Amino acid sequence: MVAKINKGSSLHGALSYNQEKVKEGQAKVLFSNRIMLNRDGSLNMYLANQSFEPYLNANKNTEKPVLHISINPHPNDEVSDDVYSDIAQTYMQKMGYGDQPYIVYKHEDLDRQHIHIVTVNIDETGKKINDSNDYYQSKKITRELEQTYNLHTAEKKTQSEELHKLKRVDYQSGDIKKQIGNTAKALIKGYRFQSVNEYRALFSLYGVTVEEIKGEAKGKAYNGLVYSAINDNGEKIGNPIKASVIGKSVGYDALQRRLEYSTKYMKENKVFDSPKLIVRSAFDNYTDKQNFLSDLAKNGMSVIFRGNAEGRIYGAIFIDHQNRTVFNGSKMGKEFSANIFNDLFKNDSQEQQQATTRHSDTSDKETFTDIQKDSFVESAEHENNNNSTLIPSLLEQHGTDYEAEAFARQKEAEYKRRKRSW
């Protein structure tokens, strides 16, 4: 179980975020404490705000008096509404917020259910509740709750043992934002890469592409990322999704930090030794392109070829799923450069022509054949049979809800504008 405490200044934003989920049928109110309700027991936003108001008015000096807490059980845990309610009540009591007004929401918009709690850290006398030890206290309480309700632990070792493989984004199944969001959050933290091209190549395995957007607004330069679903031919389908809609964790700044970390890590560690052996072995066993790609896949590797309109390969990006690293073949040595593969596959022009896919933002082409897709599945199955998986669990991703934070800021700004016009 993972608990995350987000502190902010916008009560209206935190409540609006959860209520929007309720309206969309993606959440419901489990219960509330010290909150005025309608006569039928339902939650009323006006009355909810009024219930918190005396606490907030009693102390205007605390910058972030609003707490938006998320509690996320392990994906394998099945938790009833009654148990969720007990968990929330026990958690709040032991954290020192048991006598505070708070609302507990159950969310069902992600791959698994989890709960959100909105409260304030100012008591009825105007005194700020001591939260200096919140992190350690919260961790201790969640461990106790896991034992009490026989839930899976969220220790890193256990997470590593129970990693979950992501699936290729399926446009036909709908909820593309959710699918792409889950994929992006897992891949950006789960793999190491040193360029946007390598990042994009990794995403192509999962039916997603990513573009870097640059521009200027109000005299200031800005950078951003846009994610899109792609079909089997690599063509974008549906509406693109801005990284800001998914969350900070998959945005431009987060990617730059990941690139910086990855570059340092891959420079200081011998990440190419194992891939070299695997690719050399595939060369030695080479009979045709399909055989080559299958040989890589059985050893936990994939490769994405980049080619021009004439079908010439000018780039080869390898993905080592065992060590979760993405890199250009030339970084392993000249014998793994794009020219080598172009010469190797030059007699396979018909298959290459069918496999070449077009990116709408460039005249260059990137190849991802059916063979490679099949091989990647083989790779995943091979990894699973050896008690290992390709992608890290999303367990920790649900802790910090950046979407909720962004929504809260937006709603707070709208609320202030309306107040000024009254």
From TrEMBL:
Q: Name one Pfam family in it.
A: Relaxase
The organism's superkingdom is given as Bacteria
**Stretch forming the signal peptide:** none
Q: Where is the MobA/VirD2-like nuclease domain?
A: 17-151
Locations of Basic and acidic residues compositional bias?
Answer: 358-367
Region annotated Disordered sits at 348-367
Q: Kindly give the NCBIfam families that the UniProt entry links to this protein.
A: Bacteroid_MobB
Name the chain's protein: Relaxase/mobilization nuclease-like protein
Gene source species:
Dysgonomonas alginatilytica
